[in-house]
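# step 3/5: fold
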Amino acid sequence: MGLILSLDYETKSTLDLTEVGAYRYAKAAEIMCAAYAIYEENTFKPEMVKCWRAWKGEPMPEDLHAALHNADVKKCAWNAQFERLITNYCAGLQMEVPLEEWYCTAARARASAYPGKLDLCAKALAIPQKKDMAGAKVMKKLASGEPGTEEEFERMMEYCAQDVVVEATIGMVIRDLTEEEWIDYWTCEAMNDRGIPVDIELARAAQRYAAAEAAEIARELAEVTNGEITSAKQFARVKKWLAARVPELVEELADEEGKFSLDRSTRTAIFEGDRELPAAVEELLHLIDDAGRASTTKYAAIENRTDEDGRLRGAYLFNGAGQTGRFSAMGFQPHNLVRDKLENGNAVIELVLAGAPAEQVMELAKQNMLTTLARMLRPTIVAENGKVLVWADYSSVEARALPWLADSPAATPLLRLFAKNEDVYKHAASGIYGVPVEKVDKEQRQMGKIAILALGYQGGKNAFRKMARAYGLKIDDDTAEDIKTKWRLANPWAKTFWRDLESAAIAAARHPGKVETAGRIKYLMHGDMLYALLPCGRLIAYPEARVEVVEGKFGPQAKLTALKASMHPKKGETDWPRVALYGGLLAENATQGFCASLLRAAVRQLDDAGWPVVMHTHDEVLVEVEDDEVDDAKAALQQAMLTNRWPDLPLAAEPQHGYSYDK
C-alpha cells in the first residue's frame, strides 16, 4: 500500500492541443484549475476530491504541493504525459517531478484492452461514475481563452473534479501494470521527451504541393465513383453513394446521435472485420483512408509539433494498440512511413526546397506527387549536426515468430529456412506456383511475400487482396482464392495452430482458473477477463469474454467473443460491441504482442546501455549518435535486438546508418 495522487488540470492557451501536441502546448499554457485526491491505494472515494481554483489567483494548495514534491507518492492521471508536462512547465514548482513518479491510468486501461478515452472506458466498464460531457463544452470554451463568467468557471471546476472521480475509480477496477511494463512506459516517455530530429524546412516546403496531392486523390475517387465523389470531405455524397450500395453498412455507421461517421476508428473496424464488401466500396474506403493520411498532412503535423530546437516530441503512445501492447502514434505517424527509396532523392529534395513546379518534381522523381511526397517522409528525419542516425529492423519478424509460437514439428522446415537467412518469400512462391525456388521471378516472389503477411492469420481472399493493395497490386477474387488455398496446403501447421488456439481459449473461458495451452501460448480465465500469456510473460487481455453456442455450417458450434475497445455502441444501444475470437485473430494478437515485447526489450536494453532511442516502428529501432560512435551503435543494436532467452527463435536484424533516415 502507498499514497496516490490522482490529478487533473484544466488549462488555456492560444495554441490548439490537438494540432501542436502536449509538448508545445504545455510551454504556452496556463493552469485555470486543478482537481486532485490524495489517498491510500484502493481506498478512493469521490468525497476525497479537492479543488484548486487557479483562475482566482489562489496559490497551489499545500497538500498538492507537498504530494508533488514527495517521491513516495505515485502521481496518477489519465494520459499522464499531459499532467506531467503541465506540472513541469506551468505549476511554478521550480523543479521537475521525475518521470518515474508518474503513472498513466489510460495506459493501464489500454493494456486491459479497454478504450483509451476516459468517457468510453467508463462506459465499457459500466461503472456508475460518468464523465461530465455537458461540462466539457464549457471547458472547451474557456480553454480557448474566451472570457467566462464565474458560473462558467465553477462549472468547469465541477467537470474537472468529475474527471478525477472517474479516473480514480477506473484505477481501482483495472489491473495494474507489472514493474517491467512501467519501466517500458517510462522508457517510451523518455523517448518522447528526447524527440525525433527533423528537417523542418523540408516539411514546410513539402506542404506547398498539397494541391497536387489532393488532385490525384480526387481523380482516383472520381474514377471509382464515376465522378460522383471528388473529395474525401464530401460526407453527404459519400453517405449517399454508400447507401445505394451497402445500406446496412451506412445504418451501422451512425453514432449514438444518429450522425453518419467514417472516422479513422470506424474505418479500422471495417478493415479488420470479415464483412464482404463490393470491390468499388472497398476501394472508396481505402481512398478515404489514404486521403486522411495524405503525406502533406504528415508534413503539417511535423511542422506543428516540432519545437524550436528542431525536434518533434510526443509521437508515441504506449500500449496504443491495447489488444497487443504495440505502440501507436499521435499526430505525425512514424509507423506509416513508406520504406521505398525515392529515385534521384537528393535532387528531388533540392527541387522541393526551391519550390519548383509540381510537374518538374514529378518528372525528376519519375513518380506521381502522392508517391513522391510519401517517399520523402523518411528523409525528413535527419540527425543533428555532427551526429548520425543508426537503425535496424527485425527482418520478417512476424513471419518468424508465428511458426515459432506454433511450436509444431511441421513448422520446423520453415524455421530452418529463417535460421539460414534464406529467402522465405521465394520459398512461399515456390509452393504457390509449383516452380523451383531458383526459378521464382520477381512478381512471384512479391506474391509469396504478400501471402506470408496476409494469410498467416487465417486471412482469406479479402485479406490477401487488401494486403496486395497496400503493395500497389490489384488482385482479382479468383487469383486471391487460389493463392490462399495453395499457401494453406503448403503450411499445414498454421491451420492446426489456429484451431488449437481457438480450442484452448474456449476451454479456458469455460473453466475459469484452469490453464489451457496451444503451442507456446497459454490461456486463463480470471473473473470476466480471458488472458493469453505470452512466452515473454506479458498478458494479452480479452475483456468480458464468453462462450456462446451458435448455428454453424455443420450444426451447433461454440463461439468465443469479447468486448472490442475500438468499436462503440450504436445509437440507442447500451451493450458494448463484441468481436469473435477465432483462431486466426488469436494467432495475430499473440504474434504481434510477442513481437511488441521483443521490441520493448530491445529498446529497454539500449536505453540501459546508454544508447537512447529517438524513434521506432513495429519492427525497427533508431538511435542518434556521434559520428565516431556508428560502429559501436550498430553492434549495440544487433546485440539488443538479437539477444533473447530462446535460442531456437531465428531472429535477424541488419543495422544501417545515415545522416537522414533513408534506406
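# step 4/5: annotate
The chain has a mean pLDDT of 90.
# step 5/5: archive (pending)
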